[in-house]
UniProtKB/TrEMBL annotation:
The keyword Cytoplasm does not apply. Residues 6-256 form the 3-beta hydroxysteroid dehydrogenase/isomerase domain. One of its GO terms (molecular function) is oxidoreductase activity, acting on the CH-OH group of donors, NAD or NADP as acceptor. It comes from Lentinula aciculospora. This is 3-beta hydroxysteroid dehydrogenase/isomerase domain-containing protein.
Amino acid sequence: MPDVYLVVGGSGLLGRYIAKQLHDRGDNVSVLDIVQRYDDIPFHQGDICDEQLVFSVLRKCGVTCVIHCASPQAKSAAPALFWKVNVDGTKALITASVQLGVGKFVYTSSSGVVFDGSDLQNVDESHPYTRKTLDVYMDTKIQAERIVLEANGNNGLATVVLRPSRIFGPGDRQIIAGLYSTYMTGRTHIQIGNNKNLTDWTAVVNVADAHILAADRLNAPISPDAPVHGQVFFITNDDAWYFWDFTNGIWSRLDAYYPGRRQKRKATVIPRWLGMCLGALFEFEAWIRGRKPSMTRFNITFSCAARWHNISKAKRALGYTPRISVSDEMDELVKWWMSLYESERM
Protein backbone atom coordinates (compact mmCIF):
# COMPACT_ATOMS: atom_id res chain seq x y z
CA MET A 1 0.00 0.00 0.00
CA PRO A 2 1.35 3.47 -0.87
CA ASP A 3 2.12 5.74 2.06
CA VAL A 4 -0.11 8.66 3.03
CA TYR A 5 2.06 11.55 4.21
CA LEU A 6 1.34 14.43 6.55
CA VAL A 7 3.94 17.20 6.57
CA VAL A 8 3.60 19.08 9.84
CA GLY A 9 4.85 22.62 9.36
CA GLY A 10 4.43 22.26 5.60
CA SER A 11 3.95 26.01 5.10
CA GLY A 12 7.45 26.76 6.37
CA LEU A 13 10.68 26.80 4.40
CA LEU A 14 11.74 23.17 4.79
CA GLY A 15 8.22 21.79 5.09
CA ARG A 16 7.21 23.36 1.80
CA TYR A 17 10.13 21.75 -0.03
CA ILE A 18 9.33 18.35 1.48
CA ALA A 19 5.61 18.56 0.70
CA LYS A 20 6.23 19.79 -2.84
CA GLN A 21 8.73 17.04 -3.59
CA LEU A 22 6.31 14.39 -2.33
CA HIS A 23 3.49 15.95 -4.34
CA ASP A 24 5.59 16.16 -7.50
CA ARG A 25 6.52 12.50 -7.34
CA GLY A 26 2.84 11.57 -7.10
CA ASP A 27 2.48 10.75 -3.41
CA ASN A 28 -0.63 11.28 -1.32
CA VAL A 29 0.44 14.20 0.87
CA SER A 30 -1.28 16.78 3.07
CA VAL A 31 -0.03 19.67 5.19
CA LEU A 32 -0.82 20.60 8.78
CA ASP A 33 0.17 24.10 9.85
CA ILE A 34 -1.16 27.14 11.68
CA VAL A 35 -1.06 29.27 8.52
CA GLN A 36 -1.76 28.43 4.87
CA ARG A 37 0.60 29.92 2.31
CA TYR A 38 -0.01 27.58 -0.63
CA ASP A 39 -3.12 26.04 -2.17
CA ASP A 40 -1.71 23.27 -4.38
CA ILE A 41 -1.58 20.62 -1.62
CA PRO A 42 -4.46 19.61 0.72
CA PHE A 43 -4.19 21.73 3.83
CA HIS A 44 -5.34 21.36 7.44
CA GLN A 45 -5.11 24.34 9.74
CA GLY A 46 -4.47 23.93 13.42
CA ASP A 47 -2.18 23.98 16.42
CA ILE A 48 -0.21 20.76 16.94
CA CYS A 49 -0.57 21.23 20.69
CA ASP A 50 -4.30 20.52 20.27
CA GLU A 51 -4.29 16.76 20.79
CA GLN A 52 -7.87 16.28 19.60
CA LEU A 53 -7.22 18.19 16.39
CA VAL A 54 -4.01 16.26 15.69
CA PHE A 55 -5.79 12.94 16.28
CA SER A 56 -8.67 14.02 14.02
CA VAL A 57 -6.41 15.09 11.13
CA LEU A 58 -4.29 11.93 11.25
CA ARG A 59 -7.37 9.69 11.35
CA LYS A 60 -9.27 11.62 8.67
CA CYS A 61 -6.34 11.50 6.25
CA GLY A 62 -5.42 7.91 7.01
CA VAL A 63 -1.83 9.00 7.59
CA THR A 64 0.87 6.32 7.51
CA CYS A 65 3.88 8.66 7.70
CA VAL A 66 4.27 11.89 9.68
CA ILE A 67 7.10 14.25 8.76
CA HIS A 68 7.33 16.77 11.58
CA CYS A 69 9.34 19.92 10.82
CA ALA A 70 7.20 22.50 12.62
CA SER A 71 9.00 24.84 15.00
CA PRO A 72 8.92 28.51 15.96
CA GLN A 73 11.61 30.69 14.41
CA ALA A 74 14.79 30.11 16.35
CA LYS A 75 15.70 33.80 16.72
CA SER A 76 12.36 35.47 17.41
CA ALA A 77 9.92 33.32 19.40
CA ALA A 78 9.33 33.53 23.14
CA PRO A 79 10.74 30.71 25.30
CA ALA A 80 7.27 29.50 26.31
CA LEU A 81 6.33 29.03 22.66
CA PHE A 82 9.35 26.78 22.06
CA TRP A 83 8.30 24.51 24.92
CA LYS A 84 4.72 24.49 23.72
CA VAL A 85 5.45 23.67 20.07
CA ASN A 86 8.70 21.72 20.15
CA VAL A 87 7.95 19.63 23.24
CA ASP A 88 4.18 19.57 23.86
CA GLY A 89 3.38 19.59 20.15
CA THR A 90 5.78 16.73 19.46
CA LYS A 91 4.24 14.75 22.34
CA ALA A 92 0.77 15.27 20.85
CA LEU A 93 1.89 14.09 17.42
CA ILE A 94 3.67 11.03 18.81
CA THR A 95 0.71 10.12 21.03
CA ALA A 96 -1.74 10.31 18.14
CA SER A 97 0.62 8.40 15.86
CA VAL A 98 0.97 5.56 18.37
CA GLN A 99 -2.76 5.39 19.10
CA LEU A 100 -3.70 5.31 15.42
CA GLY A 101 -1.02 2.84 14.40
CA VAL A 102 0.87 5.24 12.14
CA GLY A 103 3.86 3.38 10.73
CA LYS A 104 6.54 6.07 10.36
CA PHE A 105 7.60 9.32 12.00
CA VAL A 106 10.41 11.56 10.72
CA TYR A 107 11.46 14.43 12.98
CA THR A 108 13.48 17.54 12.08
CA SER A 109 15.86 18.43 14.87
CA SER A 110 19.03 20.52 14.65
CA SER A 111 22.77 19.98 14.67
CA GLY A 112 22.82 22.51 17.50
CA VAL A 113 21.75 19.90 20.06
CA VAL A 114 25.42 18.96 20.48
CA PHE A 115 26.82 22.52 20.39
CA ASP A 116 27.93 24.29 23.57
CA GLY A 117 29.93 27.12 22.02
CA SER A 118 33.20 25.27 21.62
CA ASP A 119 34.55 24.04 18.29
CA LEU A 120 32.95 20.99 16.68
CA GLN A 121 35.07 19.46 13.94
CA ASN A 122 34.02 16.38 11.99
CA VAL A 123 31.74 15.19 14.82
CA ASP A 124 29.37 12.31 14.19
CA GLU A 125 26.20 11.04 15.84
CA SER A 126 28.14 9.45 18.73
CA HIS A 127 28.79 12.96 20.08
CA PRO A 128 26.62 13.47 23.19
CA TYR A 129 24.01 16.13 23.75
CA THR A 130 25.48 19.34 25.07
CA ARG A 131 25.15 19.86 28.80
CA LYS A 132 25.15 23.61 28.27
CA THR A 133 22.62 24.66 25.64
CA LEU A 134 23.04 28.18 24.31
CA ASP A 135 19.34 28.90 24.01
CA VAL A 136 15.88 27.50 24.73
CA TYR A 137 15.44 26.44 21.10
CA MET A 138 18.21 23.85 21.39
CA ASP A 139 17.02 22.78 24.82
CA THR A 140 13.56 22.01 23.48
CA LYS A 141 14.98 20.26 20.41
CA ILE A 142 16.87 17.89 22.72
CA GLN A 143 13.69 17.11 24.64
CA ALA A 144 11.75 16.57 21.40
CA GLU A 145 14.44 14.22 20.07
CA ARG A 146 14.14 12.09 23.18
CA ILE A 147 10.37 11.89 22.85
CA VAL A 148 10.63 10.77 19.24
CA LEU A 149 13.40 8.23 19.80
CA GLU A 150 11.73 6.72 22.87
CA ALA A 151 8.57 6.14 20.80
CA ASN A 152 10.40 3.98 18.26
CA GLY A 153 8.80 0.54 18.16
CA ASN A 154 5.73 1.58 20.18
CA ASN A 155 2.71 -0.05 18.48
CA GLY A 156 4.76 -0.55 15.34
CA LEU A 157 5.84 3.09 15.00
CA ALA A 158 9.27 3.52 13.37
CA THR A 159 10.93 6.85 14.13
CA VAL A 160 14.00 8.68 12.87
CA VAL A 161 15.57 12.06 13.73
CA LEU A 162 17.43 14.30 11.28
CA ARG A 163 19.80 17.06 12.40
CA PRO A 164 20.36 19.55 9.57
CA SER A 165 22.93 22.32 9.95
CA ARG A 166 22.26 25.92 8.88
CA ILE A 167 19.53 25.43 6.29
CA PHE A 168 19.40 28.07 3.56
CA GLY A 169 17.97 28.56 0.10
CA PRO A 170 15.18 30.28 -1.84
CA GLY A 171 12.29 31.05 0.47
CA ASP A 172 14.51 31.66 3.50
CA ARG A 173 14.12 35.20 4.81
CA GLN A 174 16.29 34.84 7.92
CA ILE A 175 19.85 34.44 6.68
CA ILE A 176 19.49 36.56 3.57
CA ALA A 177 17.61 39.39 5.30
CA GLY A 178 20.43 39.96 7.78
CA LEU A 179 23.16 39.74 5.16
CA TYR A 180 21.25 42.05 2.84
CA SER A 181 20.84 44.63 5.61
CA THR A 182 24.57 44.48 6.35
CA TYR A 183 25.32 44.95 2.66
CA MET A 184 23.00 47.93 2.23
CA THR A 185 24.37 49.69 5.32
CA GLY A 186 27.96 49.30 4.16
CA ARG A 187 29.18 47.11 7.01
CA THR A 188 30.48 44.18 4.99
CA HIS A 189 34.09 44.94 5.93
CA ILE A 190 33.53 44.20 9.62
CA GLN A 191 34.63 40.68 10.54
CA ILE A 192 34.38 39.11 13.98
CA GLY A 193 36.91 36.35 14.58
CA ASN A 194 39.79 35.10 12.47
CA ASN A 195 37.69 33.30 9.82
CA LYS A 196 39.43 30.00 10.48
CA ASN A 197 36.22 28.34 11.67
CA LEU A 198 34.74 25.92 9.15
CA THR A 199 30.94 25.92 9.16
CA ASP A 200 28.30 23.72 7.58
CA TRP A 201 25.71 25.41 5.38
CA THR A 202 23.05 23.11 3.93
CA ALA A 203 20.86 23.69 0.87
CA VAL A 204 17.21 23.31 1.76
CA VAL A 205 16.66 21.08 -1.27
CA ASN A 206 19.21 18.64 0.11
CA VAL A 207 17.60 18.64 3.55
CA ALA A 208 14.22 17.88 1.96
CA ASP A 209 15.83 15.02 0.02
CA ALA A 210 17.17 13.58 3.28
CA HIS A 211 13.73 13.60 4.90
CA ILE A 212 12.13 11.75 2.03
CA LEU A 213 14.99 9.25 1.90
CA ALA A 214 14.58 8.64 5.63
CA ALA A 215 10.84 8.09 5.26
CA ASP A 216 11.42 5.68 2.40
CA ARG A 217 14.10 3.76 4.30
CA LEU A 218 11.72 3.23 7.22
CA ASN A 219 9.73 0.96 4.91
CA ALA A 220 12.68 -1.41 4.63
CA PRO A 221 13.41 -4.19 7.12
CA ILE A 222 15.64 -3.22 10.03
CA SER A 223 19.26 -3.54 8.96
CA PRO A 224 21.87 -4.37 11.60
CA ASP A 225 24.60 -2.92 9.37
CA ALA A 226 22.92 0.39 8.50
CA PRO A 227 19.90 0.90 10.79
CA VAL A 228 17.47 3.77 10.30
CA HIS A 229 14.74 2.93 12.82
CA GLY A 230 15.32 4.82 16.07
CA GLN A 231 18.43 6.56 14.72
CA VAL A 232 19.69 10.14 14.42
CA PHE A 233 21.51 11.55 11.39
CA PHE A 234 23.43 14.75 10.78
CA ILE A 235 22.51 16.28 7.42
CA THR A 236 24.84 18.78 5.74
CA ASN A 237 26.14 19.65 2.31
CA ASP A 238 29.35 17.79 3.16
CA ASP A 239 31.20 20.94 2.13
CA ALA A 240 32.08 23.16 5.08
CA TRP A 241 32.97 26.80 4.36
CA TYR A 242 34.89 29.30 6.43
CA PHE A 243 32.18 31.41 8.04
CA TRP A 244 33.07 34.76 6.49
CA ASP A 245 33.77 33.21 3.08
CA PHE A 246 30.10 32.28 2.94
CA THR A 247 28.85 35.73 3.93
CA ASN A 248 31.23 37.38 1.49
CA GLY A 249 29.97 35.00 -1.17
CA ILE A 250 26.45 36.34 -0.68
CA TRP A 251 27.66 39.93 -0.74
CA SER A 252 29.66 39.32 -3.93
CA ARG A 253 26.51 38.03 -5.58
CA LEU A 254 24.65 41.16 -4.50
CA ASP A 255 27.38 43.23 -6.18
CA ALA A 256 26.04 41.98 -9.52
CA TYR A 257 22.70 43.64 -8.75
CA TYR A 258 24.25 46.83 -7.35
CA PRO A 259 27.37 47.50 -9.45
CA GLY A 260 29.57 50.15 -7.92
CA ARG A 261 27.62 50.41 -4.69
CA ARG A 262 30.15 48.59 -2.53
CA GLN A 263 33.77 49.59 -2.41
CA LYS A 264 36.00 46.70 -1.43
CA ARG A 265 37.81 47.47 1.80
CA LYS A 266 40.28 45.59 3.91
CA ALA A 267 38.47 43.66 6.61
CA THR A 268 38.30 45.23 10.04
CA VAL A 269 38.85 42.20 12.25
CA ILE A 270 37.35 42.24 15.73
CA PRO A 271 38.80 39.50 17.96
CA ARG A 272 36.30 37.03 19.36
CA TRP A 273 36.93 38.11 22.96
CA LEU A 274 36.17 41.71 22.10
CA GLY A 275 33.09 40.65 20.15
CA MET A 276 31.82 38.83 23.25
CA CYS A 277 32.36 41.96 25.35
CA LEU A 278 30.51 44.09 22.82
CA GLY A 279 27.72 41.52 22.67
CA ALA A 280 27.28 41.68 26.42
CA LEU A 281 27.24 45.49 26.26
CA PHE A 282 24.61 45.51 23.52
CA GLU A 283 22.49 43.02 25.44
CA PHE A 284 22.60 45.20 28.56
CA GLU A 285 21.72 48.33 26.62
CA ALA A 286 18.82 46.55 24.93
CA TRP A 287 17.57 45.31 28.29
CA ILE A 288 17.63 48.85 29.67
CA ARG A 289 15.78 50.20 26.63
CA GLY A 290 13.35 47.29 26.42
CA ARG A 291 14.21 46.20 22.89
CA LYS A 292 16.05 43.43 21.06
CA PRO A 293 19.85 43.78 20.91
CA SER A 294 21.50 44.27 17.54
CA MET A 295 24.40 42.05 18.62
CA THR A 296 24.48 39.24 21.18
CA ARG A 297 27.06 36.87 22.63
CA PHE A 298 25.04 34.08 21.06
CA ASN A 299 25.54 35.58 17.57
CA ILE A 300 29.25 36.03 18.20
CA THR A 301 29.61 32.42 19.31
CA PHE A 302 27.91 31.11 16.19
CA SER A 303 30.05 33.36 13.99
CA CYS A 304 33.36 32.31 15.49
CA ALA A 305 33.12 28.63 16.42
CA ALA A 306 33.91 25.77 14.05
CA ARG A 307 30.82 23.65 13.39
CA TRP A 308 31.07 20.90 10.83
CA HIS A 309 29.79 17.38 10.96
CA ASN A 310 30.51 13.94 9.57
CA ILE A 311 27.61 12.61 7.49
CA SER A 312 29.01 9.17 6.68
CA LYS A 313 26.13 7.58 8.58
CA ALA A 314 23.50 9.36 6.47
CA LYS A 315 25.32 8.42 3.29
CA ARG A 316 25.52 4.78 4.30
CA ALA A 317 22.09 4.22 5.87
CA LEU A 318 19.92 6.69 3.95
CA GLY A 319 21.75 6.77 0.64
CA TYR A 320 21.98 10.53 1.09
CA THR A 321 24.11 12.55 -1.31
CA PRO A 322 23.83 16.36 -1.54
CA ARG A 323 22.68 17.19 -5.06
CA ILE A 324 22.83 21.01 -4.89
CA SER A 325 26.17 22.64 -4.07
CA VAL A 326 26.55 25.45 -1.56
CA SER A 327 27.66 27.81 -4.31
CA ASP A 328 24.73 27.01 -6.59
CA GLU A 329 22.26 27.40 -3.75
CA MET A 330 23.79 30.78 -2.92
CA ASP A 331 23.12 31.80 -6.53
CA GLU A 332 19.50 30.69 -6.23
CA LEU A 333 19.00 32.36 -2.86
CA VAL A 334 20.21 35.77 -4.01
CA LYS A 335 18.28 35.48 -7.27
CA TRP A 336 15.09 34.66 -5.34
CA TRP A 337 15.65 37.44 -2.80
CA MET A 338 16.17 40.09 -5.45
CA SER A 339 13.11 38.99 -7.43
CA LEU A 340 11.09 39.15 -4.23
CA TYR A 341 12.54 42.53 -3.29
CA GLU A 342 11.80 43.98 -6.70
CA SER A 343 8.24 42.61 -6.75
CA GLU A 344 7.51 44.13 -3.32
CA ARG A 345 8.77 47.52 -4.52
CA MET A 346 6.34 47.54 -7.46
